[in-house]
From TrEMBL:
GO molecular-function terms, A-Z: formyl-CoA transferase activity
Phylogenetic lineage: Bacteria, Pseudomonadati, Pseudomonadota, Alphaproteobacteria, Hyphomicrobiales
Positions that bind substrate: G247, G248, Q249
Catalytic activity: formyl-CoA + oxalate = oxalyl-CoA + formate
Gene that specifies this protein: frc
Residues binding CoA, per UniProt: 17-18, 38, 72-75, 96-98, 104, 136-139
Protein purpose: Involved in the catabolism of oxalate and in the adapatation to low pH via the induction of the oxalate-dependent acid tolerance response (ATR). Catalyzes the transfer of the CoA moiety from formyl-CoA to oxalate.
Name by which UniProt lists this protein: Formyl-CoA:oxalate CoA-transferase
Keyword Transferase appears in the UniProt entry: yes
Similarity comment: family membership: Belongs to the CoA-transferase III family. Frc subfamily.
Organism: Bradyrhizobium betae
Keyword NADP: no
Keywords annotated in UniProt: Transferase
Length: 425
């Protein structure tokens, strides 16, 4: 069975997380991703957060599956020649360098276009054009500037960033869509183009419901927020709403049996209006179904603390899984708070390929995230990440068609090796 992106070749100049997330996804769909790395060093994450000495870190391996690695000194004249040949042979160049780095390498957009008019150049930047476009951006900076942090946390506490990497990995996913879209357009136009995803923009896209609420706020209080029911006035910006639901239905995280010792013994519970009567039956408050103080959503709003307090009395008598099983029978929206340990051990996620076990030649076996997007006619497999420069000679021969003599000359030039330090005189 042919993979969806088989035949597409990606020249991967990305590092750390945002870019590698993008190129790994394309590799899972069958693209030939050639990761270009600095000789002797490679992607900086190979050596970051190492749990095993002298072995590629999980930070690197979990973001670079299904790729090939070539080491190349792009400052070396022979290295520039090799890069030029790679640009001729590839469909997409992906980079997440700081602003202007690709230009300083001697490969601005105009030159790349002259080498290969069909080349798509895809870039991740921190900000789009504007006052901050030259600023360096990392995950948490993106969450803060994209509106996520200001709307995350509790009303009387500090803004918070989320543990989900919505700045880095989120923007990588956005860029992957942009690349596939540009590849499709190229089938009609025959031309390449530039694709850019700014991290601030990506975070804002994921936080769009809060931009929605900012506009609603101009027309009155946000009634689904807990502070409305508590009689606390709203300011001029969307507040932090704790664990309230963003979909307009009141929701809270509630304690379950074992919460005293288990930090994840909780369940998310939504008091959805269509199942209100079923909720009343489950928690043992049947009179609330007809009581004028509880029967309608509008009258429940000022009483949400009381209502969720009563629901929590019930959830505390059940484990989070017992509660979910009971509630799901009545279509009451809920979800257990799953720890990373529970997710790692979830056999259903293993069965779907969402969590996979990978064997690495120096690390051994480890688990990783698999492709989160499933295609019925294009199954994905997860292959281990490459060792630094593992495929250098293979790429020079099979992709660029260089002879043994040419490969030997490139090796002699030093373009594939770490720069030699000059001895002190």
């Amino acid at each position: 069975m042919t993979k969806a992106l088989e035949g597409v070749r990606i020249l991967d100049f990305t590092h750390v997380q945002s870019g590698p997330t993008c190129t790994q996804l394309l590799a899972w769909f069958g693209a030939d991703v050639i990761k270009v790395e600095r000789p002797g060093v490679g992607d900086i994450t190979r050596g970051q957060l190492q749990d095993i000495p002298n072995v590629d870190s999980l930070y690197f391996t979990m973001l670079n599956h299904n790729k090939r690695s070539i080491t190349l000194d792009t400052k070396n004249p022979k290295g520039k020649e090799v890069l030029t040949e790679l640009i001729k042979k590839c469909d997409v160049l992906v980079e997440n360098f700081g602003p202007g780095v690709l230009d300083r390498m001697g490969f601005p957009w105009e030159k790349i276009q002259s080498i290969n008019p069909k080349m798509i150049v895809a870039s991740i930047k921190g900000f789009g054009p504007g006052p901050y476009e030259d600023c360096k951006v990392y995950e948490n900076v993106a969450q803060c500037t994209g509106g996520a942090a200001s709307t995350t946390g509790f009303r009387d506490g500090l803004p918070l960033v989320t543990g989900a990497q919505i700045g880095d990995s989120g923007t990588g996913l956005h860029l992957a869509l942009g690349i596939v879209t540009a590849l499709y357009q190229r089938t009609h136009s025959g031309k390449g183009q530039r694709v850019t995803a700014a991290m601030q923009d990506g975070v804002l896209n994921l936080a769009r419901v809060k931009l929605r609420d900012q506009q609603r706020l101009a027309h009155g209080p946000l009634k689904e927020y807990s502070q409305f029911g508590e009689g606390i006035p709203f300011g001029d910006a969307v507040p932090r709403a704790g664990n309230d639901s963003g979909g307009g239905q009141p929701g809270r995280i509630l304690k379950c049996k074992g919460w005293e010792t288990d930090p994840n013994a909780y369940i998310y519970f939504i008091t959805q209006a269509p199942v209100w009567e079923k909720i009343c039956d489950v928690i043992g408050e049947p009179t609330w179904k007809t009581d004028p103080n509880y029967s309608k959503p509008a009258v429940r709003l000022p009483r949400l603390n009381e209502i969720f307090g009563r629901i929590e009395q019930w959830t505390m008598t059940k484990t989070k899984f017992e509660a979910m099983e009971i509630l799901n029978k009545d279509d009451i929206p809920c979800g257990p708070i799953l720890s990373m340990k529970e997710i790692a051990e979830d056999q259903s996620l293993r069965a779907t390929g969402t969590v996979v076990e990978v064997d690495h030649p120096t690390r051994g076996k480890y688990i990783s995230v698999g492709n989160p997007i499933k295609l019925s006619d294009s199954p994905s497999d997860v292959q281990r990440s490459p060792l630094l420069g593992e495929h250098t000679d293979e790429i020079l021969r099979s992709v660029l068609g260089f002879s043994d003599h040419q490969v030997a000359d490139i090796h002699k030039s030093g373009a594939l090796d770490p720069p030699q330090k000059q001895a002190a005189e």
